[in-house]
Specification:
It is a single chain. Helix 1 packs parallel to helix 11. It is globular and about 70 Å long. It is an alpha/beta fold. Bound molecules: NADP nicotinamide-adenine-dinucleotide phosphate (NAP).
Length: 484
């Protein structure tokens, strides 16, 4: 049994930020448990060809740790992961980090007001506060396709890319046309014999304003840090403009749709292909995808877009709903993540043996996406309804982490052993969130996305501007809690 003041589960952007801010606030007795072999979370796992961020790097990085050396406006995955490793080293988190450690249970011990955390290898940890930084997109989702076990070729998920497989002389099938697929397709199209792309829903696509960051800019950012702050502010405001349209004025998105359709018109000459690539829901309902090389890649001789539902896998082929059979050597499932169902990877047992899996069976709910009534001293970073469709998630992470630090300081100052959000506060908060979401594009745009659970409830997105979330999280609101 190992004892710590805090246990952090996960060492992606959330866990790293939590670790840094704990240390800055003088909390040193904590451990970070990470499932993977290295810190980095999604940016360690997703090493597929073409992986890059679709939010600008000067904004998709910690506000307190600017990197003047980003190579591009939208940096590739290895650079983002290197930035995270730099943060782990600079803020001396390595000594707190336990990799290859998968948590598979957490139980609240009422007598001692402690959490007991169990790992897959049977290790146990006890702590005063448990901080879940597990990310919403860490469990790959494989589609329920008949014959999944029958395929004799190689198959893997985009987040578990098999770098051992040489794709050079292979027919590669990609299933899915989301944010991951549109990066993979152009990255491998000229390296494979044939590429078959299976599309169920065409996404809205906009050109990506990407470019290399010049040496002059890098020098300027290093010598005059306020210039990088200005760049960050400009990018922040640009992205933030989308929030109003997404949340309360989806009609405005018609203008965006016109731009996107005119881009499609310019880039894709074949009318049939253009028709197949034209989305049939309101822009923004699913994530808008930014890319300059997806449409050109689809028009290569060796690339085919197949817009028929995948019905079955055969030993060496994929069969579609119209009965056609498409031979393939490799299948890549770019089919997303278990974001809405099974959001908890293990059960969390709170007061009076309450099971969080059971309580969240109709969709997870928390107070400010962070705390849950009945589960004292438990905190989530990027919990329910804190995701974004328009801006950098790092903004939300930092706001939540600072709020949690406020809670921990309050507990310490008041010598409280327990801190629990009041049930009615949590309930009112979620009624308001769902009311705000009801008129948003994510609920009215005519699509089914990973933001919603099987009952159509949006459990992922923050329905507002990021500055309203940051303002709400600025300072810990002890009156919403009972502490003792
Ligand atoms: P996703 O957006 O959920 O896309 C999954 C794709 O697989 C969709 O096109 C979906 O079609 C398709 N699909 C799922 N099951 C299928 C089936 N049975 N048959 C045929 N098609 C099927 O997943 P993702 O592309 O991995 O992206 C997930 C999220 O990760 C993104 O929304 C984004 O937040 C994040 N991400 C970010 C970046 C970045 O640049 N920052 C890059 C990659 C991912 P339907 O649309 O019809 O469901």
């Amino acid at each position: 049994m190992q004892q710590f003041e805090q246990v952090i589960i996960g060492a992606g952007f959330s866990g790293i930020c939590m670790g840094i801010q704990l240390r800055k606030a003088g909390f040193e007795d904590f451990v970070m448990l990470e499932r993977d072999a290295q810190a980095g979370g999604t940016w360690f796992a997703n090493s597929y060809p073409g992986a890059a961020c679709d939010i600008q790097s000067h904004l998709y990085s910690f506000s307190f740790e600017p990197n003047p050396n980003w190579s591009r406006m939208f940096s590739p995955q290895p650079e983002i992961w290197a930035y995270m490793q730099h943060c782990v080293a600079k803020y001396d988190l390595q000594k707190h980090l336990r990799c290859n450690t998968t948590v598979n249970g957490a139980r609240y011990l009422e007598e001692s007001a402690q959490w007991e955390v169990t790992t897959a290898s049977g290790e146990q940890f006890r702590c005063k506060q448990l901080i879940a930084c597990m990310g919403g997109l860490s469990q790959p989702a494989l589609p329920q396709i008949q014959g999944l076990q029958d395929f004799k070729g190689v198959m893997f998920h985009s987040a578990q890319w098999n770098h051992e497989v040489n794709l050079a002389d292979k027919t590669v099938a990609i299933i899915g046309t989301g944010a991951s697929a549109i990066q993979i397709v152009p990255a491998i199209a000229n390296k494979v014999k044939q590429l078959l792309l299976f599309q169920r829903t065409p996404p809205w696509i906009m050109p990506k304003p990407d470019r290399p960051v010049s040496n002059f800019e890098k020098k300027m950012f290093a010598l005059l840090p306020f210039t990088q702050k200005l760049m960050r502010l400009k990018l922040y405001l640009q992205n933030e403009m989308f929030a109003g349209a997404f949340v309360s004025h989806p009609a405005v998105l018609k203008y965006g749709q016109r731009l996107s359709l005119s881009y499609l018109q310019r880039k894709v000459k074949d009318e049939k292909l253009r028709e197949a690539l034209t989305p049939n829901y309101t822009m923004g309902c699913k994530r808008i995808l930014f890319t300059n090389n997806y449409y050109p890649a689809l028009q290569r001789e060796n690339v085919s877009l197949i817009s028929k539902a995948v019905s079955k896998l055969l030993p060496h082929a994929i069969q579609t709903a119209d009965g056609s059979v498409h031979a393939a050597d490799v299948i890549v499932f770019a089919t997303g993540f278990q974001a809405s169902e099974d959001i908890l990877k293990f059960d969390v047992v709170g007061k009076n043996n309450r099971s969080l899996v059971a309580e969240w069976k109709n969709g997870p709910e928390a107070y400010r996406g962070t705390t849950v009534s009945g589960f004292p001293n438990l905190f989530f970073v990027i919990g329910p309804n804190t995701g974004l469709g328009h801006n950098s998630l790092i903004l939300m992470i930092e706001a939540q982490v600072n709020y949690i630090i406020g809670a921990l300081k309050k507990m310490k100052r008041n010598h409280w052993k327990t801190l629990e959000v009041k049930a009615e506060k949590q309930q009112h908060y979620n009624i308001r969130i769902q009311a705000d979401l009801a008129k948003s594009v994510w609920q009215t745009g005519g699509c089914k996305s990973w933001y919603q659970n099987s009952q159509g409830k949006n459990i992922a997105i923050w329905p507002g501007y990021t500055f309203s979330f940051m303002r709400m999280m600025n300072g810990f609101d002890a009156e919403a809690y009972t502490g003792s």
